[in-house]
Amino acid sequence: MNNSIIKKAAEYVRSIQIKADESGHDWHHTERVWLNTKYLATKIECNTELAELGALFHDIADAKFHNGDETIGAALTKEWLENQFYDKEKIDTVVFIVDHVSFRKKYKPNPKTHPELSVVQDADRLDAMGAIGIARAFSYGGYKQRPLYTANFKEASSTIGHFYEKLLTLYKLMNTEPAKELAKERHDFMVSFLEQFQKDILPIKYLG
Ligand code: ADP
Ligand code: NI
Question: Model confidence over 182-202: pLDDT tens digits?
Fold first, then answer.
């Protein structure tokens, strides 16, 4: 890593996020999103430095822990980059990523006009899929004291319900082709996990 702004940003974000966060937004999540962003950014026409900075700052302040305030993450990002005397136009791009990446905001970027946001959003969503996505979902469910599943399997109030509400929809929402390729395996893995889960809780249906 020879790019000093990225190195500095990674150290800053790490120092804030390294304290364990059961809701799934700890430093290790950011590091995975950063690594997947780096990979995806090499596969499309994209400013890698801006995408990497967007990935590093994307969860710097989760609204869930700031009384629902959705603006804090972008404000912190802007302030930090300004303190580094980073280029104003570049700051705008990074802040735009932080402001629009979240699943909740349902912003669908065009990879041609917003390639950096497109790859960061894809990388963030990839991390909610596959084995890691399953682990994060149950970690979040435990943190929120939610049941593993309810009688109505697809009801959103349980962690299993969250797969139907969100996780199984992510594959089709990928912005870029390289992300879609990575998402396929993770999606299929979640589908087999749910099949096995159903078998495990209703063995009679299959054995009888
Ligand atoms: P984002 O940061 O992309 O907006 P969230 O904050 O909603 O995403 O989710 C962070 C992590 O917690 C993800 O892995 C997500 O799947 C998981 N998660 C969010 N809501 C739930 C839920 N109701 N049940 C289980 N897992 C959840
Ligand atoms: Ni995230």
Answer: 999 999 999 999 999 999 998
